[in-house]
């Protein structure tokens, strides 16, 4: 409905741009990307065995970025050849195909209460309160601290990753004289290597090297700090591409963080926890891009590459939290009591 609204509005001549905001109404009522990603993550946690869940979550991350890659490469050509309406109609067709596939081929993993299907439940605040309560719920074995640490790492990483999305082209155009075509090719390269490394790093770190998820996240964050540092010191085009290669190692962080949460939190709580995770990600994206835009505007004359080092510092904070989560996770299986010997055996000795 959202893209169909965009198609209709774009077809009207001399219409006010404010009418394009109408497409946000069905988008918001349906939960937008938050509901979509929460449903995908929850369904995978319900239906996939734990030992296969990491690589499957990696496939989900890769598939999302593959869609972005295809859209980035094809949209400009479609727009040049056919105009706005064709782009929006293509989006309508893709969404309709996804809806049909979900309706006919994906079975519900849980029994849903029919009372929860009422439209009035969309406007209740109780689910929001319950979701926040799940995040901060007191748990055994310091699991609450572990959950909050994983949350912090994930949200901070996502905020850092997309914080330069609104300024990176401006920076590359100013410092390296890049054209829009050069930047489009760079974005395509970044997405392609992100997809590849998402699958490779999970396979190598977790399946081959048998690393713990927290250790793999620490490794990936270290590569991200190196990547942003290289991007900040870069003065040649190939160095920018090299930085993108280092940053692509971080592609394993989202699926591994989601896998960790599914191991720590009971199955009946994971859906609400994923909903909170995606919601906090949306806030992190907004804050990250706004903050880095401010930093870039303040340093554009004297130190325009400064936002790269700010992002590296943010990843450094995430690295520290990841180390703390690794310590908590390693102690999680340690019992808090001493195993008592049998009293009769002690007497016999």
UniProtKB/TrEMBL annotation:
Membrane topology: Multi-pass membrane protein
Segments crossing the lipid bilayer: 20-45, 57-80, 86-106, 145-162, 182-202, 214-234, 240-261, 273-295, 307-329
Keywords of the record: Membrane, Transmembrane, Transmembrane helix
Highest taxon of the lineage: Eukaryota
Major localization class: membrane
SUPFAM superfamilies xrefs: MFS general substrate transporter (SSF103473)
Compartment(s): Membrane
InterPro entries: MFS, MFS_trans_sf
Any one cellular-component term (Gene Ontology): membrane
UniProt keyword Hydrolase, yes or no: no
A GO molecular-function descriptor: transmembrane transporter activity
Protein name: Major facilitator superfamily (MFS) profile domain-containing protein
